[in-house]
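This follows on from our talk about sequence and fold. Can you supply me with one protein entry, sequence and fold together? Could you add the entry underneath, on a fresh line?
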Amino acid sequence: MKAVSSAEVGQKINEWYQHIKKLNVTDAEMLRSEIREELDMMEEDEQAVLYFQLMDFRHEQMLEYVNPVEQKVNKAEYLRAVEGQGRKFTGILEYYFNFFRGMYEFSQGEYITAITFYRQAEKRLDRVADEVERAEFYYKMAEIFYHMKQTQMSMYYIMLALDTYKANPTYVIREIQSRFVISGNYDDFNRPEKSIPHLQEALKRAQAIKDGLMTGITLMNLGNTYQRLGKYEAALNYLQDAEGFLKAHTHIKIVYYQQALINFKMGNDEIANDYLNEGIEYLKLNPDKLFSSLFDFLINLYTKPLCIDELMEILKRFDDVRGYPYLEELALESAEFYTENGRMEDSVYLYQQMVYAQKQIRRGDCLYEH
């Protein structure tokens, strides 16, 4: 049987990666199966094998994004196996290893570690000739800076990515996701009204390609933005529409949380408790430490007699890099609620917690520089 050249396999891996980035699961799965068969017939080439292994890891990340409930591999062990004992990556493979490792660390909430790997990848970005591939890197940088509340940096990178995705219509999902990041940054700039045009454009794009997941996430984000604007009825309408699209996706817990919070703020306690219970039931089958704490926060603040000590025990759970943005918002929410209930001394203390979270977020400016 004639050997398959490593160049042919490498080209097919490149094609596989294009489908992964577009979330074309069926085509990506088909190509992965073909490439696995061809590897057995391929001429010996360790670099090509490494390239396959790295892309296989990236494929698993895509599958987990599309269906988070089904995590098929232990990614930490997989990465260790790919890296190997003393194995050295060079050229474009060094870029991919650091880039994918950064994505993994980000998914684990290890933001500083993720930034470290992304910075290493950036040093090899000159090896990446494809414009869309560069946009993928810019998108991921914007994503992590957004989560770290480094808003200016996030906006810089996301605009670079968006320009490329808009010029390449086949990457419409990435354009939609880029608009999510832009919207979130405008929210962090306290300009939620500037988020709406981007989200409306994202909704139009998602509906045009009949993508239920992207449609649902866009509706959820619109609900969040209108909540920030204090337009609660509009927010709930968008969230109710989002619920229909996201019932089978992990994002449904966010929708339940937002609906419960808004209804509590509106004084609709019975409806709020229904959504609260929906969220709690969901978490019983799909445990999530972060959202468990968020629902505990709602229970403590809105369904029990006010107790600052119990509330502070819950807020302490958010005292880390991943949690500081939540701590900032929850402390503000609590402070306003305590003020409404005449608990001024406790309210001042909660405002201080908000300021503490903001300071910790700003400290992140220097953490990723080294």
Remarks:
- The radius of gyration is 22 Å.
